[in-house]
Amino acid sequence: MKINPIYGFRNNCMFINRSRQKLHGGAVLAAKSSNQSLFEKNKRDSVVNGSNAVYVEKLFSKWSRDPGSVNASWNAYFGGKASTHNLPQPKSRKSSQSLEESLSGGGGKGGSLGGGSGGGKAPTIQGPNADWKYIDDHLVVQAIIRAYQTRGHLAADLDPLGIVGPTGSSLSPENKKVQATKAVLRQHYYYTFNDLNAVFKLPYTTLIGGDEQFLPLQEILDRLERVYCGHIGVEYMMITSLYKCHWIRQHFEKPGAIDFKPEDKKLILERLTRSTGFENFLAKKFISEKRFGIEGCDILIPAMKEIVDESSRLGVESIFIGMAHRGRLNVLSNVCRKPIADILTQFHGIKAMDPGSGDVKYHLGVFTDRQNRQSNKRIRITVVANPSHLEFVNPVVLGKARAEMFQRGDINGDKVLPIILHGDASFCGQGIVFESIHMSELPAYTTYGTIHIVVNNQVGFTTDPRFSRSSRYCTDVARVLNAPIFHVNADDPEACIHCARVAAKWRAKFHKDVVIDLVGYRRNGHNEADEPMFTQPLMYQRIRKLKPVTVTYAEKLVREGVIKMDDYTAMVSGYEKICNEAFEESKKNESFKYSDWLDSPWPGFFQGRDRLKMCPTGVSVKVLEHIGNIYCAPPPEERNFAVHKGILRILGQRRKMLKDRIADWSLGEAFAFGTLLKDGIHVRVSGQDVERGTFSHRHHVLHHQKEDKVKYNPLQYLYPDQAKYDICNSSLSECGVLGFDLGYSMASPHTLVIWEAQFGDFANTAQPIFDTFLCSGETKWVRQTGLVVLLPHSMEGMGPEHSSGRIERFLQLSDDDPDVYPDTSDCDFVARQLIATNWIVTNLTTPANLFHALRRQVSGGFRKPLINFAPKSVLRHPMARSPFRDFNECSAFQRIIPETGEAGLKPECVKKLVFCSGKVYYDLIKERDDHEQNDTVAIVRIEQICPFPYDLITKQLELYKDAELIWAQEEHKNQGAWSYVQARFDTTILNFQKDTRCVTYHGRPPNSASSTGNKVQHYNEYNDIMNGIFGKLTEANKQRLADQIKAQQDRALKESAASYSKSKKEKVKKAEKKDDKPKQASGADDKKNSKSKKDEKSMKAASGKSAKDAKKKMKKAASPADEAAPAPKSAGMRSAPAAKPKPSRKAEPAKDDQPQSSQKSKKPGKDDKPDK
Ligand SMILES: Cc1ncc(C[n+]2csc(CCOP(=O)(O)OP(=O)(O)O)c2C)c(N)n1
Asked: What was the pLDDT predicted at 69?
């Protein structure tokens, strides 16, 4: 016989079968006859064991003489009756004693944990006189209560089909229940209680007693079973807040918590009738149509209505719903109140009057704004249109809700509520679920609580849960939320409505997520045409026998006398009549509009606007200076903000640019943000490490070097009445965060939302958002967004996975026809082309063009997503700078940047016209310069690849009509923009009459990887491209380059030596000044002498040292500033790694009257030093 390690009794003889005793929780009581000898009892009762037998023996003889002389529990044990009155009350112990006090001796008073009658005495462990059984009983009762609270859901009766037992086993119902209770109670299952009617003091951790502090054990067990193992399984004990746990208990444990008034019950039935009636009606009228009905989880509709009503009562004004196909039409009709006739129109197969592809009816969005009858308040409900990709709408809904909160100034989410519906298989199967819910507590992404409802029909298409998840519940992924999960049997309407109501209250009270797991079934196949018996025969045999919940609930209410059967029949026929009338009305519709199903109406934006009017994006230099002065300055002195030395240096460099009226990438971007903020446009930048910038180029958020969490973001302090600027480091998610920011951008057209990828190729993991929302959202759902996506892209020899943002994919998804030359004579051509495209794809090369592109995103009468392939080394490239005049009122976005150097001045002399896009431009101009072909090769940058600038390309063809046409790219042939531009070049050339030329490709050969990881190979490939375009360097070229390098090295040496001797002189001067002071120590002269000798020595070494310095300087210029931030390498490309580094160029200080491109052809002058 085993001894229970905790209780010290033999557990195998204590267990009396629950079914035999009809007891709860395996709690065991054998009524003991007072005549039984202790010896006889001992045989069966292991309370008496070797170690306490003598003690019990004594007690027994005492009790035999006078039953009142022993403790009441022993009296009960030996055969007497336990009563509430003579039970020693726990309060006789020092009930207020804390655990800490107990463990530490409690200040010497009443510290005994073992004493049944401590009474304020010093802590003593009571030995044989203690009433151990009584104490154990109480402790076990407490443990049992806690076990129910923690694990009661494991024994809850959740499955209306009764297939999956409470423990997931396939035993007989009775055995299942035993197993389930064992799973809840674990070791306590084997504990023996003498009397189930014995009264116990309830601990303060339960509210099952209501106003009662004491309850008989049987009643305690009954109540726990009812609360925790009925049709609701509450998972909440993982919540770390005791207060929240208490709140949950108030809403589930308190007697009467789940009671409904008759009128509430009637309302539930009415709503159930509509839910079931809607599906029945569609099934009758459109037998073969897919509608993904909700039958089997019909309670979803009343549950959602309850959430809407309760939330509206609690102050919510706007609800955002995300959901998949299942029950969607029913939700649109019965929750959002989209007119049934409008929904039925979708079934009639009629034509849409507006352009676009539209979408299937069970993906469409809805926006309604109506009076809520229950709360008598207005409420807006949006169901966000979604693709078939399950769960990917989740982050979009969250972002949209968050943006709405911002727009309304709803800082705690009191007025805006997101509700997301999930399928059981998709909730646990799709990673995007985790990515989305994991944002729930992030300051820049929180929605202050989302209500999740899982429509758990216990099957995913044809797959059983046991094959589709490893977790017990499909909701286990949500346990990261530290929020309650209510599992509820969908065939118990009142239990479901109760959970819905509590969920709404929870969200309003705590602003935290909450999950409802509606466990039901699917009455039909995956869709109505599917045969479910193929794959789930037994399940469906049961389903066929089940009455719909609406019927069973109606019968229940009839039994309870709440309604009469006639009332129910009238409800059913009344709703049928409504549907029939709507059906007749819908038949009158001859057409409809996709825009009737728009989920983001943007009131006022589309009305009275000239969509073709392109708004200017340039600003006055004064504004730039104002923004620049704040952006480039350290925090104001009064902030007493310790700034990092490196940041101070960067700010200094920025101020120098301001002075020189020139902007690098960071400044250009800041100008765009700053000017938009000034205009009242809210700007939000989100992504991994965006605050600093992956390449350490942005530094929008400065961190106090001495105080934790003290930050300074200068762009938030440009103007007193500016719009809000948010820049937020995101979680390490692409899909979730991109989806969120897409949703954010949908809330208002007057916001610039930017998502920046760490490296462009990481956008791969967000592909569904690009494919199904961003590139096609407008055509499917008439929904616009001006979201900007920045994808760092360029071949820097950094390996396959950090090089390519996969331009080719985005261009392949662009929907302009490659074979149609558009009407470029139209004066609105540019606007028309932009309006017609599904998104804009750019690969920008100048800060000014970035500035205009960003401003253009929010300037006109339409919104388009912008995918920009962002620079890496070009961020720091000394030539990638724009003079202020490129930002001013006369400037604008340049779709192409034509040649403006020597070749541009004499186009007739040009032999080669090279088109390119992005960073390769800077390589090309350097190589052209090295090859001394500045007058014969013209280089044109295509900044906006899609939509293709046909008109401007045509002009270039005209201008260089005799030149050979070349497309140069650094990407591999099957990648980059080549396949997109090739077809469009052909169309342009064809259109350009008599032109027989064609564009030849110069780039890397096809490859499955986006780049080599080997630097030598990288440079060799580079040389091949450049040799292909410019030919090999001639001897004269080489000599000139060598001379140039030498001259530059000499100059650097001289400068270095000069600065060294200058600093030495200063030091000597300082030392001399010190020497003028009275000498204090006799040995001072000697020391000074030896020091000056040392100085002499080092002066001699100066020239050598400065040579090293110069080399170092140049190496630095040609190598990455840090691992994450590659410095421009174009200067060193030709000479593979082993070769001597070449100096890079520095941009000339811009003068407002010089054209931007003249910088590119300028030969190194005396200011040309390697950029640090
Ligand atoms: C990402 C994704 N994968 C696969 C599918 C195909 N599919 C559509 S519905 C479905 C079953 C989903 O099961 P569940 O989430 O339980 O929802 P239910 O259809 O049962 O309501 C599947 C596999 C899809 N639409 N999206």
From this structure: 75
> Ligand 1: distance of its center to the CA of 1047 in Å?
69
Of 390, 543, 769, the residue with max ligand 1 atoms within 8 A of its CB, to mutate for a pocket test, comes to 390
Of residues 675 and 596, the one with the higher pLDDT is 675
Residues 6+ apart with CB under 8 A from 1144: 877, 878, 1117, 1118, 1128, 1130, 1131, 1170, 1171
Residue 908 contacts residue 962 (beta carbons within 8 Å): yes
Angstrom distance (rounded) from CA 104 to CA 82: 34
426 lines ligand 1 (CB under 6 A): yes
Note the pLDDT tens digit of each residue in 514-532. Answer: 999 999 999 999 988 889 9
Average pLDDT over residues 881-902: 97
Mean pLDDT score, 111-138: 58
Same domain assignment for residues 215 and 270 = no
206, 268: one domain: no
Of 855, 887, 919, the last residue of a domain is: 887
Residue 1092 near ligand 1, beta carbon < 6 Å: no
Residue 457, ligand 1, Cβ within 6 A: yes
Over range 630-650, report the average pLDDT: 97
Q: Are residues 171 and 229 in the same domain?
A: yes
Rounded to the nearest whole angstrom, what is the distance from the C-alpha of residue 424 to the centroid of ligand 1?
Answer: 9
Residues 404 and 505 in one domain: yes
Same domain, 212 and 280: no
Choosing from 837, 857, 887, the residue where a domain stops is 887
Going by pLDDT thresholds of 50, 70 and 90, the confidence category of residue 1069 is confident
Q: Is the CB of 390 under 6 A from ligand 1?
A: yes
847-880 burial, b at 16+ Cβ within 10 Å, e below that, comes to bbbbbbbbbbbbbbbbbbbbbbbbbbbbbbbbbb
In this prediction, residue 1142 carries a pLDDT of 39
Residue 358 pLDDT? 85
Atom of ligand 1 at shortest range from CA of 392: 1
Mean pLDDT calculated for residue range 744-771: 96
Q: Is the domain of 470 the same as that of 510?
A: yes
The owner of tokens 């208990």 is: 249
Is residue 432 in contact with ligand 1, taking CB distance under 6 Å? no
Ligand 1 pocket, residue 462 CB under 6 Å: no
How many helical (H) and strand (E) elements, i.e. helices and strands, does the chain have? 39, 28
Is the residue at 219 inside a domain? yes
Ligand 1 centroid vs 360 CA: distance in angstroms? 16
C-alpha torsion sign, points 1156, 1157, 1158, 1162: positive
Whichever domain contains 753, its CATH number is 3.40.50.12470
In a domain? residue 359: yes
Residue 293 CA, ligand 1 centroid: distance in Å: 14
CA 148 – CA 661 distance, rounded (Å): 72
Strand partners, 913: 938, 965
Q: Which two tokens stand for residue 731?
A: 């979680």
For 161-208, what is each residue's pLDDT tens digit?
988 765 555 667 778 888 888 999 999 999 999 899 999 999 999 999
User: Across-strand partners of 941?
Assistant: 897, 916
297 pocket-lining for ligand 1 (C-beta < 6 Å): no
In a domain, 676, yes or no: yes
Mutate to test the pocket of ligand 1, among 359, 426, 474 (most ligand atoms within 8 A of CB): 426
Cα–Cα distance for residue pair 101/110, rounded to 1 Å = 9
CATH of residue 359:
3.40.50.970
Q: Establish whether residue 465 lines the binding site of ligand 1, counting it when its CB lies within 6 angstroms of any ligand atom.
A: no
Whole-number pLDDT of residue 1058? 87
CA of 526 to the centre of ligand 1 (A): 9
Tell the residue nearest (CA) to atom 14 of ligand 1: 423
The boundaries of the domain holding residue 18 are 5-50+91-235
Smallest CA separation from ligand 1 atom 23, residue:
461
Q: Which ligand 1 atom is nearest residue 430's CA?
A: 1
Tell me: do 322 and 449 sit in the same domain. Answer: yes
Q: Number of structural domains, the chain?
A: 3
User: Is any ligand 1 atom within 6 A of the Cβ of residue 517?
Assistant: no
**Is 635 found in the same domain as 567?**
no
Identify whether 509 is part of a domain: yes
pTM for this predicted structure: 0.83
